[in-house]
Design goal:
By secondary structure, the chain is an alpha+beta fold. The protein contains four helices and 14 strands. GO terms for molecular function: initiator methionyl aminopeptidase activity; metal ion binding; metalloaminopeptidase activity.
Length: about 260
């Protein structure tokens, strides 16, 4: 299903996006050496409830997971990159942490992710990988405009990631979003320009470049959810929800 949202729905999407941004910014500021992943999950649950919003994750049970997810935020550490199931783990100095959050507010969902290094250590390779996903996200957003194709976004993202030397997995990528978290169209993190669905004002997309340092192969944890690099290398993930407007793309998951 591909939804084209009406102006009133897009206004609610801005509220949902601002809430996601607020929760991620707050969780990031609190996540220090010694913080337990379960505490981050608790913070997310409390902030979602305080805002009168609903988690898109806690009851999420797709075919690829061992559902329902049962938690409120994805917490992926080091070699984990997607669907990181919160568990009893205390963050260490130099850990690369990805927080991925989706909530629904007023009947519209928003989705965003951020990767960062915990503590005082700043491993150069980790910082470079995070920045590459951020640049790829910026490129994808710049390519998202009315009349463009999904392939134009994928090509823009993939060009940045490939130039930075990272293999690209196309099994998981960006997606449409609206009244539900995951919708068509799929937005792969590499692709051919000029191909795919034509973008229209009112379309919302969650763009999410992610990479693994030296592989494009994923393995699944025993928890049935957490996806890790097959080689144990580090990973990074950046994501924003955008709305296609008559002028271009508006980022909805920025702090107010």
């Amino acid at each position: 299903m591909i939804e084209i949202l009406k102006p009133a729905e897009l206004a609610r999407a801005k509220d949902a996006g601002a809430l996601v941004a607020h929760i991620l910014r707050t969780a990031r500021s609190r996540a220090t050496v010694g913080t337990n992943l379960l505490d981050i999950d608790r913070w997310a649950r409390e902030m979602i409830a305080e805002a009168g919003a609903q988690s898109c994750y806690v009851d999420y049970a797709p075919s690829f997971g061992r559902g329902p997810f049962g938690h409120y935020i994805c917490t992926a550490v080091n070699d984990a990159v997607l669907h990181g199931l919160p568990h009893d783990y205390a963050l260490a100095d130099g850990d690369l942490l990805t927080l991925d959050l989706a909530v629904s507010l007023g009947g519209v969902a928003a989705d965003s992710a951020v990767s960062f290094v915990v503590g005082e250590s700043r491993p150069a390779e980790s910082v470079a990988m995070i920045r590459a996903t951020e640049r790829a996200l910026e490129a994808g957003i710049a390519a998202a405009r009315p009349g463009a194709r999904v392939g134009d976004i994928s090509h823009a993202i993939g060009s940045v990631l490939s130039a930075a030397g990272y293999p690209i997995n196309t099994e998981f990528g960006g997606h449409g979003i609206g009244s539900t978290m995951h919708q068509d169209p799929h937005v792969a993190n590499t692709g051919q320009p000029g191909r795919g669905y034509k973008l229209r004002p009112g379309l919302m997309l969650a763009l999410e470049p992610w990479v693994m340092a030296d592989t494009d192969e994923l393995v699944t944890d025993a928890d049935g959810w957490t996806l890790r690099s097959a080689t144990g290398c580090r990973t990074a993930h950046s994501e924003h929800t955008i709305a296609i407007t008559h002028e271009g793309a508006e980022i909805l998951t920025l702090p107010r």
